[in-house]
Amino acid sequence: MVQQTAFSSFEPELQACAGFTDLHQGRLRSAPAHLKSALAGFAARPPETTVAKAWPLPNDPVAGAAIALACVSAAQGELDEAAYWEGEALRRAGEIGSPLGPSSLAFVKTYAAWIRRFLGDDDAARQLGAEVVAIGQEHGYAYWTTLGLVYQAAREPAGAPDREFEEQAIATLRQMGHEAFAASHLIYLARLDAANGDVDRAAEHIADGLAAVQEAGEHLHLPGLLHLRAAYALARGAAAEQPVADLREAIRLAIEQGARVTRLRAALELARIPPASRPDDWRGTLAEARLDLPPSFKTEQTVAADVLLDR
Asked: In the predicted model, what is the mean pLDDT of the chain?
């Protein structure tokens, strides 16, 4: 439609939506082009008309495009870029005022919470979730209050997460009709169960997450789900054949998507399979995944990969 003169002025909004679609569907390689095009288009407009009057959503698309770029950068291991774009999103959401400002700020902080949880910083995710809840309560947003609660399984810093609370928060959100990132929330719930020794229940949540991905087409989470399905199957004593197939598929998908962090996690799981069942090419697979990440990206997984590769 934007190729038609009557709709051509809506191009930046279209590019922002296309970039978000790419993010959710796991097309991390093409998402930045859409999102940066959107931001350039918004910036080229006069300040008073940055966003088209026809924009129908309660969150600002400029802040939305910036936080989407932060998510893409985090999934690719570009943490400095992620911090920059998150800062731009927070700045924009904080300066636009009502009516879009509060909802936009909650929107940005929700995706920022996902970034922290994806990278393993559960305390930072909890804090951002609490800030989203506070915005929801202040402005009467039942939606944002509920979504913020999904990131608050642990009420205090370094506190033990409440698995039943988390499960109920996810169920409530889905009953409200919100399916976005449901698979990601189920991954976190599975992690809690596995940490508590209930690998069977963790595997059930991963199965639910795979179903959610197939229903919604939100393939961003698919490599991570396959990685954990393999990890939990191995922990339950399954033969290595199917887990190895899952890990190879997770790595293939992560390469296709440009999801470097998830690729390393799956390659590391492959390298940890007992030698009798481990594929002969595990070292090359792990080395390639490690080299694909920026040198500045340092986590427990990169340290573990370096240790294995130095043997």
From this structure: 95
**Per-residue pLDDT tens for 256-275?**
999 999 999 999 999 999 99
Q: Rounded CA gap, 152 and 266, in Å? A: 27
146's tokens: 């509920």
Residues 126 and 148: beta-carbon distance below 8 Å: no
93-106 core/surface letters (b: 16 or more CB in 10 A; e: else): beebeeebbbbbbb
Mean pLDDT computed over 169-192: 95
Residue 6 DSSP SS3: helix
Indicate whether 7 pLDDT > 90: no
Q: What is the pLDDT of residue 9?
A: 85
Give the Å distances, CA to CA, from 304 to 9, 51, 56, 121. Answer: 50, 46, 47, 18
CB-based contact 272:39 (threshold 8 Å): no
| Domain-wise residue ranges, the chain | 9-171
- In angstroms, the CA 213 to CA 199 distance is 21
- Could you tell me which CATH number the domain at 9-171 has? 1.25.40.10
Q: How far is residue 252's CA from residue 246's CA, in Å, rounded to a whole number?
A: 10
Q: Are 11 and 2 in contact (CB under 8 A)?
A: yes
> What is the predicted pLDDT for the residue at 275?
93
Give ∠ CA 264-68-164 in degrees, rounded to 5. 70
Of 230, 139, 128, 221, nearest to 183 by C-alpha is: 221
Q: State the burial class of residue 61 (Cβ atoms within 10 Å of its Cβ: 0-12, 13-18, 19+).
A: buried
Q: How far apart are CA 240 and CA 219, in angstroms?
A: 25
Q: Is 163 exposed, middle or buried (0-12, 13-18, 19+ CB in 10 A)?
A: middle
